[in-house]
Amino acid sequence: MKYVIPGGTGQVGTILNRALTAAGHEVAVLTRRPARPGEVPWDGRTLGPWTEEIDGSDVVINLAGRSVSCRYTSDHLRDMMASRVDSARVVGQAIAASGRPPRVWLQMSTATVYAHRFDAPNDEDSGVIGGTEPGVPGYWAYSVDIARSWERELERADTPHTRKVALRSAMVMSPDRGGVFDVLLGLARLGLGGPVAGGAQYVSWIHDHDLVRAVEWLVDHDEITGPVNLAAPHPLPQRQLMRDLRSAWGVPVGLPATRWMAELGAFALRTDTELLLKSRRVVPGRLLRAGFAFDHPHWREAADDLARRTRDRRTTAHRLRGHGTGGHGTAGAIT
User: Fold this and answer.
1) Is 143 helix (H, G, I), strand (E, B) or coil?
2) Would you give the DSSP letter of residue 35?
3) Are 41 and 84 in contact (CB under 8 A)?
4) Which of the residues 55, 60, 103, 140 has an alpha carbon 20 to 30 A from that of 256?
5) Where are the alpha helices (DSSP H) in 23-73?
6) Please, which residues bridge with residue 166 across strands?
7) pLDDT of 223-243, one tens digit each?
8) What pLDDT, in 10s, does the model give residues 257-316?
């Protein structure tokens, strides 16, 4: 099959591109800065020659959008909104204009659409949409608005021959450099992997292999439309998540951080505390009810697997450098 992945050069796109290519599929990645074979230029806002990739393809997986790993300034929040809404709108226009439209459009969304809560998990049917919770920073509502506007463009698109699914994704855990697991592991190795602001806030996550399997499963199941939570079935409090991660790597101690310490750390990392402090208790109700089985449903086992693969990657990179294949290209590409 042919897959087209707008915005496919980030962590999730890299995971999917790698797996789908290895499975023998043709993959075209739409990006503003094409640099590799299979990458096609687009601007994420206007129709152009890139639409030829969509016409006649089988599956579109739109991942385009400004990274959320940034300081949530007014300008950055506006960019996050515009990049998601504009790209979803123009992908919908391209599909609508296709002579042979793809049969499936998987549109990235986010588990952040759900409310900050501790009392019960959020699934697609009974989950509480966020934006009006008391006692949280007002700008958190803007993140929910972004998610809802993102999905609204998917709903509005006039694509009667293309099935549409919104992927409400939790944090994707993989051993790739710069990914969420890599950042958390780096903090743990520095002794900073303890509870943040008490650590009671829930973290929803999904193992990268289950992400790929879920995407392939959704492509094959024509009865599934609308929002689908891409999250492992067992979210857990942040303090437990970091405890299991430290155990997987063999780090005995993780210093706790207060809320103000988290603010300082987020500022140093040029990111935002919403990513650390919002309680995202999200479960994959529709996937489970439809019969999807997770290979990595529990974090402790998933963390062990990710730690092992991270060690293997680093060992391989070190070996390649030792054989003189270069520390500038080959080793850095093994992620």
Assistant:
1) helix
2) -
3) no
4) 140
5) 51-54
6) 107, 227
7) 999 999 999 999 999 999 999
8) 887 787 777 666 667 778 889 999 999 999 999 999 999 999 999 999 999 999 998 888
Query: How many CA atoms does the CB half-sphere of 190 hold within 13 Å?
Result: 9
CB 133 within 8 A of CB 278: no
- How far apart (Å, rounded) are the C-alpha atoms in residues 283 and 108? 17
The one-character DSSP state at 61 is: E
pLDDT confidence of 335, banded at 50, 70, 90?
very low
**Residue whose C-alpha is closest to residue 11's, from 244, 145, 241, 169:** 169
Token duo for residue 91 = 């992908």
Nearest-angstrom CA–CA distance, 197 and 308:
29
Owner of token pair 């087209």: 4
Q: Is the dihedral of CA 216, 284, 226, 129 positive or negative?
A: negative
Compute the distance between CA of residue 14 and CA of residue 34 in angstroms, rounded to an integer. Answer: 14
Alpha-carbon distance of 208 to 335, in angstroms, equals 12
User: Cα(309)–Cα(175) distance, rounded to whole angstroms?
Assistant: 6
Q: According to the per-residue pLDDT averaged within each range, which of 21-35, 177-191, 247-261 is highest?
A: 21-35
Task: Give pLDDT, residue 68.
Answer: 74
Give residue for tokens 């949280």. 136
Strands 171-173 and 205-207: parallel
Average pLDDT of the residues in 234-258: 95
d(CA 169, CA 205): 8
Could you identify the residue written with the tokens 């991660």?
245
Question: In angstroms, how far is the first alpha carbon of the chain from the final one?
Answer: 25
CA 165/CA 40 separation, integer angstroms:
24
What distance in Å separates the CA atoms of residue 176 and residue 76, rounded to the nearest whole number?
Answer: 25
DSSP for 145-185, written as a single string: HHHHHHHHHHHH---TTSEEEEEEE-EEE-S-TTSHHHHHH
What are the residues facing 252 on neighbouring strands?
A: none
**In angstroms, rounded to a whole number, what is the distance separating the alpha carbons of residues 14 and 29?**
10
Query: Which residue, among 299, 316, 179, 315, has the nearest Cα to 247 in the 3D structure?
Result: 299
